[in-house]
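Dear colleague,

Following up on yesterday's call, I've attached the two folding results inline so they're easy to grep. Please treat them as preliminary; we haven't cross-checked anything against experimental data yet. The first protein's sequence and structure tokens come first.
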Amino acid sequence: MSSETQPGTPPGTSLHADALATLRSWTGPTPEQERLRLRYVTHLEAHDGTFGNGVFRESVPDHLTASTLVLSHDGARVLLTLHAKARRWFQLGGHLEAGDVSLADAAAREAREESGIMGLVPDPVPVHLDEHVVPFCRPGTGDPDRPVHHLDVRFVAVAAPGAETAVSDESLDLRWWSVDELPEPELTELVTLARARARGA
């Protein structure tokens, strides 16, 4: 029996433990990434055993999310989704759920759901972290001075040649983009680190 189902164990205990172990063992590739890693670790340590455990959306104002940058088999393109609420192009990802056993598992689930590519398996080592304000995330705090922050942990997966995609209900569009013509400049660092990780994996 997993700790998720043992009586008296707060939901998210195993997922919290995995997230904390993953982020403690990872090293940020830049000073800013290392700062964020420490920020995430501190967040998780402070929310151990609390409502939402710091990993589920019920943990406000901050909680973890998991996402996957999907690369084409040759690393020349990335698969991005046009987010229905944000109306911007992003990598595939979202909130952690009770059935997720790890951050990488959550990232894989989101990637498969949002891409339609059932065989996607992300590398289990994170490639990038990003903290951002999400005004439309619910439940929120009810206080505009305390907006919800997503503490996103990002992974990379490589699609097989000729992989067929399908737009999900959460997306307005799904499209392959050249790594040299990204629709969002903020994705540049993520794409660079993901491609380097994929080449070295």
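Below is the second protein, in the same order (sequence, then structure):
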Amino acid sequence: MVTAEADTQPSPALLKVLDGVVDLHCHSGPSPFPRRLDHVEASYEGARIGMRAALVKSHHHNTVMDLLAMGPRLAKAPTPMYGGVALNSEVGGMNPSAVAVAINMGGKCVWGPTVSAAQHIEAHRHDDGFPHNTGNLYEQEVSVFDASGEVSEATDLVTRLVGDADVLLTGGHLDGDSMVAFFETAHRNGVRRMLIHHPDYIINASETAIEKMIGLGAFVEHELSMYDPRVKAPDWPIEQLVEWIRRIGPEHTVIDSDLGQVGNPLPVDAYLLVTQQLLDHGIPAADIRQMMCRNTAFLLGLEETNR
């Protein structure tokens, strides 16, 4: 059982804004990282704000297997939970077989390399605030390129599998140039649903790279965890998120939680707190729903468009 941080009831107006949110970045467990709640508990938590669906992310394994194993418990749970696979060394890196397994089991997302991306490995050397594994997982670098510097055949096949299945592809924690090459390949192979994670955290993608990827149809993601003051790092001011929204536009922006870790607020509590902050800083309710409900539903394949 998990416990909410606040005893006060959110206002009906705030709940109306949040009704139907889709969390594309839920870190419920199991995981090698300590988690505050499991996928079933996350489903019941989501019901507090009328969450439409949540996508469960692990850096280390195919989360579709978790959800299938929890099927009897999830059958009556209120919020539909979806999974996928991240292309880190634990699943063989840029591995079309791992992608085919996840998709064939019902997976809705393929995450590009995260903890195995060179950009992440370099950032992690300097204590970027990212959590540590509970043991050595012997992770190795994973790239979208082959030894000659071209996009690898495995990367090309991964994107074709994603395109054929019409599921979500994310850039993981790749650097900007690698992510552009990844998404250009994906776009040629028919991928419609693409997402750039936290561009100013770990990835540090350039404005030019972000513009190129938006031009390919990618959305820019920002996480509640980075703006909730109860999370130790990076602890950014809400004005930074407001500036991103106004610069990129709500039509290209996604906001989700990136929460579920031990020591951090519950995802739903972050939705309540940060959404109210956005409203207080002049972001219209319609724009918030575009970023949290419509864009996210499209990316998860719940809708054909985000309009």
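For the second protein, one point worth flagging: The beta strands are 22-26, 53-56, 81-82, 84-86, 109-111, 168-170, 193-196, 219-223, 253-256.

Best wishes,
A.L.
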